[in-house]
TrEMBL record:
Keywords: Glycogen biosynthesis, Glycosyltransferase, Transferase. It comes from the Bacteria. This is Glycogen synthase. The keyword Lipoprotein does not apply. InterPro entries: Glyco_trans_1 (IPR001296), GS/SS (IPR011835), Starch_synth_cat_dom (IPR013534). The lineage of its organism: Bacteria, Pseudomonadati, Pseudomonadota, Gammaproteobacteria, Alteromonadales. It is an enzyme of class 2 (transferase).
Length: 479
């Protein structure tokens, strides 16, 4: 099959979160299955500075009403997969991908409506006639509509899949600002009372198939509570909604060969993990104590990750003999509270308001537990990385976390972690206490759990097979 994978960010090229991990690993896994897959993404400033690429096509013209856009197309190879980059400096040559700090750019509607249109034009310019256009999240959710309304004939046989990595971000923008849509009077019914259009809703309505990044999140999207207020939209497409669990890139995330670690280890020989813990404590400025449980947390600082009920009990948690290391950037209100608590308990809580791939790997290897108490979690990748590193996840039973972690109380013989149900502070506190007790009281069983966790495998090969089946499902019968 010919697959055009349209996405805003890709690991190694430009990244703000888990979407990028998937946008690298999945196309590579699909390519390995024999498909002709090509990625299209914006040529962001970070990318332009890293790779000074020449044009493979220039001065591509797009018209929207009386506006004209001329953009260039660059190309690079990501391992085996060609990546086309849409080069339009006015929109993409900026410090951040979606914002310059924490506030979104005011013209994101225009930027991503343009990008969605330009991605399709790129396929035409490259004479790549896809069987499937695979869109990802709100940034590219207008592609299915543009394809349905395209009158060039180029996409006549093409089908569309929308993957939802995070349904909370929907791209709600003033319709009047989106010059690519202004001529489409038929969209009047989609505009809400404030004059806004919801990009993700458009994708849900017009894509041939929709999938979430885990089976459990797909089920949640079909409920009033888990649908991010899009209950009726998802229900309307219920027969076309499914879930495919993300994979873990075990080449990048292998404690037996990870280039960011001071020592290597495997499920058979865990000894190296102790040195990773010591190095992590050293780098974080925590006392180097081997037998104090070290809980790591690494994520974007946003309500999604459970800070709403974690922060109120942080103080109580820190009364225990424990060390906590939090790394992440995002909401300044969350970072202020973390900073405040870290100043009160300098020997127990360290907060790093930044992100680096090296620290992400060291934290996964050096921690005993990985905390991910998410309010919602479409799939979650860090708990998979934790499992691979024998770092026991403490998670809330939601979204993909429920699909990937097995709780000690529920399945004592197969357990790989600790899980709590209610999104509240006392459930979280109890769960962390349960984990710490287990660590102290049953050190041998703790090691058994680590080894079991390391044997879990969520491969991109399996995920790619599932996507392949879903693409086939999208296609017209005679294909
Ligand atoms: N400040 C930062 N800057 C750059 N990178 C950072 C970062 N903080 C964390 N990361 C990295 O981003 C990734 C986080 O992935 P997750 O899946 O855990 O969450 P995210 O919510 O971003 O992804 C969403 O999409 C993924 C992919 O489908 C789903 O698994 C998930 O549930 C959904 O919320 C990891 O590779 C991590 O190291």
């Amino acid at each position: 099959m010919k697959i055009l994978f349209v996405v805003s960010e890709v690991e190694d090229l430009a990244k703000t979160g888990g979407l990028a991990d998937v946008a690298k690993s999945l196309p590579i896994a699909l390519k390995a299955l024999g498909h002709d897959v090509r990625i299209v993404k914006p040529y962001y400033k970070q990318l332009a500075e890293k790779f000074k690429l020449g044009n493979v096509a220039d001065e591509q013209l797009l018209r929207a009403g009386d506006k004209e856009y001329r953009f260039n197309i660059k190309r690079l190879e990501l391992e085996t997969v060609p990546v086309y980059c849409v080069d339009y400096p006015d929109y993409f040559h900026r410090a951040g991908l979606y914002s310059d700090g924490y506030e979104a750019f005011g013209d994101n509607a225009e930027r991503f409506a343009f990008f969605s249109m330009a991605a399709l034009r790129t396929a035409q310019a490259m004479d790549f006639q896809p069987d499937v256009v695979h869109c990802n999240d709100w940034h590219t959710s207008l592609c299915p509509y543009f394809i349905k309304r395209d009158d060039s004939g180029f996409f006549a046989r093409c089908r569309t899949l929308l993957t939802i990595h995070n349904g909370a971000y929907q791209g709600v923008h003033r319709f009047a600002d989106i010059s690519f849509l202004r001529p489409h009077a038929e969209l009047a019914a989609q505009i809400d009372s404030q004059g806004n259009l919801n990009f993700l809703k458009m994708g849900i309505q017009y894509a041939d198939k929709i999938n979430a990044v885990s089976p459990n999140y797909a089920r949640e999207l079909l409920t009033p509570l888990g649908s991010h207020s899009l209950y009726h939209d998802f229900q309307h497409r219920a027969n076309d909604v499914s879930g495919i669990l993300n994979g873990c890139d075990y080449q990048q995330w292998d404690p037996g060969s990870d280039k960011f670690l001071p020592a290597h280890y495997t499920g058979e020989a865990l000894q190296g993990k102790a040195l990773c813990k010591q190095t992590l404590q050293q780098e974080a400025g925590l006392p180097e104590k081997a037998n104090v449980p070290l809980i790591g947390m690494l994520c974007r600082l946003t309500e999604q990750k459970g800070f709403g009920y974690l922060l109120p009990v942080l103080n109580q948690l820190l009364q225990h003999n424990v060390q906590i290391l939090v790394i992440g950037t995002g909401d300044p209100v969350i970072s202020d509270v973390l900073q405040f608590n870290a100043a009160q308990f300098p020997d127990k809580l360290v907060f790093r308001n930044d992100f680096s791939t090296r620290m992400a790997h060291l934290l996964e290897a050096g921690s005993d537990f990985f905390l991910m108490p998410s309010l919602f979690e479409p799939c979650g990748l860090n708990q998979m990385y934790s499992l691979a590193y024998g770092t026991i996840p403490i998670v809330r039973a939601v979204g993909g976390l429920r699909d990937t972690v097995l709780d000690l109380q529920m399945l004592p013989e197969q357990a790989t972690g600790f899980m709590f149900e209610a999104p509240d502070s006392s459930a979280l506190l109890n769960c962390v206490r349960r984990a710490m007790l287990f660590y102290h009281e049953y050190p041998d069983r703790f090691v058994q759990m680590q080894k079991r966790a390391m044997r879990q495998k969520f491969t991109w090969y399996d995920a790619a097979l599932n996507y392949q089946a879903l693409y086939q499902h999208c296609l017209p019968m005679d294909n």
